[in-house]
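Task card 7
Instruction: Convert sequence to structure tokens.
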Amino acid sequence: MRGMMLPGDPGSWTREQVVERMAATYPQLLEQFRDQYRRMFAQLLAGQAPLAFHCTAGKDRTGVGAALLLSALGVPRATVIDDYLLSNRYTTMPTGTPTGFWAKLSPAAAGAFAGVDRRYIDAVFADIDRRPGGMARYLKEAMGLDRAAIARLRHLYLTRG
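Output:
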């Protein structure tokens, strides 16, 4: 969460400020965790599944990784985004009295950190879409997934009916 912090007193941060900061930070995850995402794809290509991948909150780095995987599998972007937004449905704020950093935040700002907002994942897709070749080229160059690798992923992990 270090890179996602705003300047000043956390008690003064608004929900909108946190959302804007999170959306600005999310595209940085593509580079910051590129090696981990590449390793995830390598393990999947090697048939090492089921595979658990996670991060501290289970929504930021994990959400981007899941979005990349679903995109490589050919899942429509609207479905990928809907999947990402399920974090708000299945994740709850911690109960009890907040402590430390969390105690300084307003409930609205804490919710923006603890939950997900469509603007977070949209920022990742916008970053990829601005690159020449978009998602296909990103998957090839940054993730090492050429057409054969993508075909193998789809063969291994999509249900045939």
